[in-house]
Structures are given as C-alpha cells and as structure tokens.
Design brief:
- This protein is mostly helical and 408 residues long.
- It is 82% helix and 0% strand.
- The chain is globular.
C-alpha cells in the first residue's frame, strides 16, 4: 500500500494548521478590540466582522476556477502571502474605517487559500489513500480551532496587548507560507480551455451534494452564532460557550480517528450517513432536554440531565460533523473530473457558507419572532430534512455519478 504520510502531505497539513491558528487566535478577541480601541457598538462590530465572511464567500467560486486553470503552487503562494500580509494591515489600521476595509478584504485571500491548500493536499496524496487522507487533513484545522482561541485569550490576559496578538498571527502565517513554499508538486496541465462557464465556478455534476450540504451548514450556523445567548437566556449558563466548542472540537478529532478505517476502505456514504444521523441526535438532544426541563415541575431534578444533554450534544455534533464533512468532500471530489478538483473543493465550501449565512439570517428572524427555542427546533427540522434528502436522493445521485470505482 502506498504511503499516506509522505513529506509533502505532512507539510501541507502543518501549513493548514498555521493558517487556521492565525485566524482563530484573533477570532474571540476582535469584538473586544473593536469595542475598546475604536469604541464600536455591538451592531457595528457585527457589521465589521461579517465583511470577512462575505468576501471569502464571494472569492471561493473564482478560487476554484483559478486553482484548476493555473499552476496550483503559484496560486497557493500568492494567496498565502496575501493572507499573511493582511495581518500586518491590522497593525497599520489607525481608524475604524481602515480596520473595516482591511478586515473585509482579508476574507478574499482566506477564501482562495482554503481552496488552494486543500486542493494541493489532494494532489500530493497517493491515489489509493486519497479518501482516507482527506479525512485526516481536516484534523489540522480542528486542532487549530480547539487550541488557538484559548492561546489567544491566555496571551491577551498575560500581556494585555492586541498588537502582540496581531504580530503573533502575522508570524505564524508567514511560517505557514514558508512551509508551503517547500512543497513539491508534479507538473500538471492547466485546463485546455480557460473560457468562463458555470462549471468552472460551481461543480454542476455535484449540485445535489452541494444542496444537501446547505442544510447542514444552516444547522451549524444557528448553533455557532446563537449558542451563547441561548445558553444564558434559556439555560442560565453564562460561561459555558468555550467549553461547549472545546467539546465539539474533541468530537471532531475523535471522528477523524474513529472514521479513518471506513474512509480507508472507501466507504464514504457510510461515513456520511452515520455522521449526519449522529449530528441530528446531537441537535435534538441540545434543544429537547432544556425544553423538557423548562416544561416540567421537576426542573431541579432534571437539571443535571439537562446539563448532560447540553454538553453531550457538543460531542455528538462534533463527532457527526467530523464524519460527515470529509465524506461529503470526498463524494464531491469523486464526481468531478481530475481537472476540476479546485472547483469541487470550492463547491462544497460555498454550499457550507451559504447554509451558515442562511442559518444566521433565519435563526435571527425566528428567534426575534418566536424565541431562541423555536430557532433551534427549526435547526432540528432543517437538519432532519437534510438527512432524509441524503438517504432518499443524494446517496443514489452520488453512486450514479461517481468516477472512482474504489469509493462507494
């Protein structure tokens, strides 16, 4: 069997960790920085920070085309270099307007970098181990997600300096650029035709896979944005958000280790199906037990059970998403031709981002009209619809269009 952990693959994994570490080390502290340094209000903070996501979403389709149409190493180096330089831009932004411009533009190279780096990871994997390797690749950003926020908060409490954190993010990103610069890629022909068409920006052959992923992105969008306020207003938990996401990250990491064998054997539909069912149980547990506790006169007796349901759902959602995400990424790549790997990667990321955006929007509207509990019951309904869609249509859709006989 061909070697999975080859030198180039390990380098791309480490570089992926650095880019997400640089991103997440600042994420929990940027609202505080905008409030203290510029006196920004809550609505302005939300507006400033949302620009990053919007720009990343806009860049992803073009990134897939560019990664497929031009030398991938060159695209990777340019996007990683730009991503690193923008951290220095935070240091130079002396007004709220300048910071907003820098933050919004920063989403562009981030969107391009995540597509190009993951596509290069696929290129350096041996074809016989690609399915398994894609699953392990996600461990690097899962580790960054689990470690970086805590490191950032600890360093800020120790130094009381946002400038130090900006420099740290800049240096870590530069290290990632240097590591990726040593990756060796075999020459690959660019697209024989660089004319612009829809399938250069979105993988038309995988449209149902993308549509299905929107439902799961929707669910996580509501959870990640309204968890803290739901925990505080409905459950009376004021400091558990960090613990919740830490447990979610643990679930993600465990899923990659647990699901590696199925991916190694090419059983991507098995991983996708089991993952989404586990996630659905987690989302249902998250909202059902607190609701039951609020309705029951025995709330004091159900409180420990409610807390177990709350934190237990984090492990289940992380475990489920950890199984589902690499499986869907594998399925999307395996319905694409070899010269459309970048497009396939950008398609699955676009679908997730669209779902996240819809979740934030719809979750806010539903919670404003009917309360946060209703918003999370909406999550359960949408997630269950996504599960039903997979077993009734998407699985067969993939198997009909699958171009890799070793994957099923």
């Amino acid at each position: 069997m061909e070697r999975l952990w080859n030198r180039n693959y390990c380098k791309v994994m480490v570089a992926n960790f650095t880019l997400f570490f640089a991103f997440y080390v600042l994420t929990p502290l940027l609202p505080l920085y905008l409030s203290e340094h510029f006196g920004a209000t809550k609505d302005v903070i939300g507006l400033v920070l949302s620009g990053y996501t919007i720009t990343a979403l806009l860049f992803r389709p073009f990134s897939g085309y560019v990664v497929d149409a031009f030398p991938r190493k060159m695209v990777l180096m340019i996007s990683f270099g730009a991503f690193a330089i923008f951290f220095a831009g935070y240091l130079a932004a002396s007004t709220l307007l300048l910071f907003t411009i820098v933050r919004t533009l920063h989403g562009g190279p981030f969107g391009a970098l995540t597509v190009s780096n993951s596509t290069v990871a696929i290129d350096v994997l041996p074809s016989s181990r690609r399915t398994e390797g894609i699953g392990y690749y996600g461990l690097s950003n899962n580790l960054a997600m689990a470690i970086a926020p805590s490191v950032g908060i600890f360093i800020y409490q120790l130094t009381d300096s946002f400038e130090f954190l900006f420099w740290l993010a800049f240096i870590v990103a530069c290290c990632g650029w240097l590591i990726d610069s040593t990756v060796k890629l075999s020459p690959k022909a660019c697209l024989s035709c660089r004319t612009l068409s829809l399938d250069r920006f979105f993988l038309v052959r995988g449209w149902l896979l993308g549509l299905n992923m929107v439902a799961f992105g929707f669910s996580f969008g509501v959870l990640s944005n309204y968890l803290a306020i739901y925990g505080k207003e409905v459950m009376g938990i004021t400091g558990g958000t960090g613990t919740y996401f830490m447990l979610c990250s643990v679930g993600l990491i465990l899923s990659r280790l647990q699901g590696g064998r199925a991916l190694r054997n090419g059983r991507v539909t098995h991983n996708a199906g089991s993952g989404m069912v586990i996630s659905l149980i987690g989302y249902t547990l998250f909202i059902a037990l607190p609701t039951l506790g609020n309705l029951s006169p025995l709330t004091s007796y159900l409180s420990p059970l409610t807390m177990i349901g709350y934190y237990g759902s984090a492990l289940l959602i992380g475990l489920g998403n950890g199984h589902m995400w690499p499986a869907f990424q594998n399925m999307t790549i395996n319905v694409a031709h070899n010269n459309q790997r970048g497009t396939a990667n950008s398609t699955i990321l676009i679908s997730w981002d669209i779902g996240m955006g819809l979740g934030i929007l719809v979750g806010g509207i539903v919670s404003e009209l009917f309360g946060y509990s209703s918003a999370f019951w909406t999550v359960v309904v949408v997630n269950a619809s996504g599960v039903a869609c997979f077993f009734l249509a998407t699985k067969a859709f993939f198997l009909r269009r699958n171009l890799n006989e070793t994957v099923r």
